[in-house]
Amino acid sequence: MPEQRNKYEEFKLSIAPMMDWTDRHCRFFHRQMTRRALLYTEMVVADAAIQGNRERLLGFSAGEHPVALQLGGSDPVKLAEAARVGADFGYREINLNVGCPSDRVQSGTFGACLMKTPDLVAACVEAMKGAVDIPVTVKCRIGVDDQDPEVALDTLAGGVIDAGADALWVHARKAWLQGLSPKENRDIPPLDYARVYRLKAGLQSHFIGINGGIQILDEVVGHLDHVDGVMLGRAAYHNPGLLIDVDRRLFGDTHAPVEIAILIDIMCDYADRHIADGGRLSHVTRHMIGLFQGVPGARRWRQVLSTDAARSDADSGVIRKAFAEIGENAAEAAE
């Protein structure tokens, strides 16, 4: 393993911030399968964190920890204030988004387009570091549009590290801000893991994590030979069962992984509490659709959750009904 930065080294695996996906219900679900992975919120715009409904936007349960808040913005003063708000809420870390390629993000002059203004990103990090005592990190791309990734990534990394960033998570693709949709930006630009490895090789005393296209834990283990941490995105969301083996495989933990039947009981109790507070079952179950990927009966599990959970009167009985369709095959999800 490469040398790691002590105060951040425990986070060798994280679950990426994903808009419309990694809400508090998703994070609670993921936390039942791994005690050790660092979980990220969806991106919250700095203005919203300062002026919006903070409990709705930033609220989370203590049981989600360790959990990090990702902020979007490009104004150092506003980001510093939003970071203070996040720290006061109890987040473990504040992360700055320098990787999202969506049109909405570009119009606000933040996200991946900030790769073009590394001095501004460094100023934002410096302001955030001055505002909070918890780690401040950055998630970026290797470059955007016609930038040379060799120059762009080194420049961005050098600036934010000099400004005090505690870690840099790198999505190992360029972002094309013109001509590709956000969805296409997740697949079409080629992955260049070697570029991130080279960055780490030149920054041995700083935490560098990698993200992008990583599907299984065997791949995670391979990347950890070259970098300090791995961030899983869509793989963790669409196939959350892979998280069940994370603590044993990556962290050497000896506690028994959660049994599937117990996981279902926990999520049923959680869903019923959410419904009692005025929520809908589907707010919870939409994150559970992929739990039994590849297991016989998974199609019926998905069908029941997708249709029955949408009813206005749906409760946790829908989850139990869907689980019954898996039956004795459920044990395969934990293997």
From TrEMBL:
Catalytic activity: 5,6-dihydrouridine(20a) in tRNA + NADP(+) = uridine(20a) in tRNA + NADPH + H(+); 5,6-dihydrouridine(20a) in tRNA + NAD(+) = uridine(20a) in tRNA + NADH + H(+); 5,6-dihydrouridine(20) in tRNA + NAD(+) = uridine(20) in tRNA + NADH + H(+); 5,6-dihydrouridine(20) in tRNA + NADP(+) = uridine(20) in tRNA + NADPH + H(+)
Top-rank taxon: Bacteria
Sites where the protein binds FMN: 17-19, 70, 139, 171, 211-213, 233-234
Cofactor(s) required for function per UniProt: FMN
Active site positions, chain numbering: 100
Record bears the keyword Lyase: no
Domain DUS-like FMN-binding: start-end pairs: 15-314
Keywords: Flavoprotein, FMN, NADP, Nucleotide-binding, Oxidoreductase, RNA-binding, tRNA processing, tRNA-binding
Enzyme Commission numbers on file: 1.3.1.91
Annotated GO MF terms: flavin adenine dinucleotide binding; FMN binding; tRNA binding; tRNA-dihydrouridine20 synthase activity; tRNA-dihydrouridine20a synthase activity
Xref: Gene3D superfamilies: 1.20.120.1460, Aldolase class I
Swiss-Prot/TrEMBL site (Interacts with tRNA) positions: 97, 183, 186, 299, 302
Family: Belongs to the dus family. Belongs to the Dus family. DusA subfamily.
Role noted for this protein: Catalyzes the synthesis of 5,6-dihydrouridine (D), a modified base found in the D-loop of most tRNAs, via the reduction of the C5-C6 double bond in target uridines. Specifically modifies U20 and U20a in tRNAs.
Name of this protein: tRNA-dihydrouridine(20/20a) synthase
Phylogenetic placement of the source organism: Bacteria, Pseudomonadati, Pseudomonadota, Alphaproteobacteria, Hyphomicrobiales
